Amino acid sequence: MSNITGSTPRSELEAVELNKATIAAYEQYARDYAQLVGSEPSPEWALALRRLDRIAPTGTVLEVGSGTGCDADYLEDVLGRRVRRTDATAAFRRIQAERGRTVEALNVMTDPLGGPYAAVVALCVLIHVPHDSLPAVLRRVHRSLKPSGVLLMSMREGEGVEQDGPWYTALWRESELLPAILRAGFLVEIRSLHVDSAAESWLTYVLVKAA
Predict the structure, then answer these.
(1) CATH topology classification for 10-209
(2) Could you list the pLDDT tens digit for every one of the 211 residues in the chain?
(3) What's the CA gap between 179 and 156, in Å, rounded?
(4) 146 φ/ψ angles, rounded to the nearest 5 degrees
(5) Cβ(138)–Cβ(180) below 8 Å
(6) Is omega for the bond preceding 116 within 30 degrees of 0, making it cis?
(7) Domain spans of the chain?
């Protein structure tokens, strides 16, 4: 992560601290999370990954927040995609390393993303980016993609922020999220809404980098 300096704006300082706290919480919770989500993507995420595969150009897929790796496994083993797995949480990287997967350390808010990629996958990840910081993250993802590259992202639908201890989740109304997506240079290819088993509403987008 980048160092905090006295010249950093207050809003950016707060975003960095929230990011650190969320990562620290996942360090403690990663094993429990792995048991909770299981070894395969949910039907909704599997469908979203197939949609990405149909329209993304050839090349490497960057997954940010790879977690337990089940979505990357699906991309590689079922869809035949090459995936660069990354996660800011060391505990998740260890979980995947234990079964022979290579996962690099990468924080989508602060680290260079590299590229250009055929696609970027960010499922259940950008919900932890504060509202004011999301536009910059989307622009960085846009720059990392090939022409006509694809971003698959899911966000929690709602109002304001949900925070329980170190856990920070930014909730979004589509009326506010969509303008940020378009301003970052993306076109909406597919949009879906579903409610999960915890009664949480998720907005999922397959976005294409505009020319």
Answers:
(1) Rossmann fold (3.40.50)
(2) 333 333 344 467 788 888 888 888 888 878 887 777 767 898 999 999 999 999 999 999 999 999 999 999 999 999 999 999 999 999 999 999 999 999 999 999 999 999 999 999 999 999 999 999 999 999 999 999 999 999 999 999 999 998 776 778 999 999 999 999 999 999 999 999 999 888 899 999 999 999 7
(3) 16
(4) -65, 165
(5) yes
(6) yes
(7) 10-209
